[in-house]
Specification:
mainly alpha, Endonuclease Iii, domain 2, Endonuclease III, domain 1, 2 domains, 12 helices, binds iron/sulfur cluster
């Protein structure tokens, strides 16, 4: 009799499937990449705040002009609120985002000499910066610091949420709980960038309404595969983009 472990299937425990799914998606998307355009940690922080409820493409359309006009936190604090609202209007939720950008910029100047702190507790203490934004920025700017940071985790956006449900990695819909569930399943070395390849898979293959299961590199490990006649564990929930 062979001592080989049984092959993994979509019915295998999530603890066994998760590292393999993570590795396959990383290989497929070559580790993934932040699709927002940025050249400094501050620009990435601004772009990530703006990207809420918008698309990276839309943000990349407006940031060249924005970054040329606003060179650093002092410019966001100094500008008239309505002028900044006009400058970011196209990204949606522009009033709330204006408050976040100005509050975040003021806090950077007051507490960190205008620099973006590379520590999770400092990042999430900034106005308008939740764990998703902080994980994205720290993971992209300083992956080693992210790995060593006891408060860092995994960025959970709408794609990570949907795919985590479809993979059966979580039953939660609260991003904080989903993040905790993923942290139990994925190797810590993966945390800084784990969400990047999941997000690309969500954008290119595992669409919210029409997942392309026949083209999916983790189809054999997915308990929501429509190809295999499974029920979609994300429930085709309305509004899950
Ligand atoms: S098999 Fe289908 S539902 Fe599962 S991850 Fe792939 S595309 Fe998404």
């Amino acid at each position: 009799m062979s001592d080989d472990p049984p092959p993994l299937t979509r019915r295998s425990p999530k603890t066994k499937r998760a590292p393999v799914i993570d590795a396959r998606l990383r290989e497929t998307y070559q580790g993934g990449v932040v699709e927002l355009d940025w050249t400094t940690p501050f620009e990435l922080l601004v772009a990530t705040i703006l990207s809420a409820q918008s698309t990276d493409r839309k943000i990349n359309e407006i940031t060249p002009r924005l970054f040329a006009k606003y060179r650093g936190p002092a410019d966001y604090v100094a500008v008239d609120e309505e002028e900044l609202q006009r400058d970011i209007y196209q990204t949606g939720f522009f009033r709330q985002k204006t408050r976040s950008l100005r509050g975040m910029s003021a806090a950077l100047l007051e507490r960190h000499g205008g620099e973006v702190p590379l520590r999770m507790t400092d990042l999430i203490a900034l106005p308008g910066v939740a764990r998703k934004t902080a994980n994205v920025v720290l993971g992209a700017v300083a992956p080693d610091a992210h790995r060593d940071d006891p408060d860092a985790g995994i960025a959970v956006d709408t794609h990570v949420k949907r795919l985590s449900l479809r993979f059966g990695f979580t039953r939660a819909t609260d991003p904080v709980v989903i993040e905790r569930d993923l942290m139990r399943l994925l190797p810590k070395a993966s945390w800084p960038t784990a969400s990047l390849s999941i997000i690309l898979h969500g954008r290119r293959v595992c669409d919210a309404l029409r997942p392309r299961c026949a083209d999916c590199v983790v189809e054999d490990l997915c308990p929501s595969s429509l190809l295999a006649g499974c029920r979609d564990r994300a429930g085709q929930a309305k509004g899950m983009g």
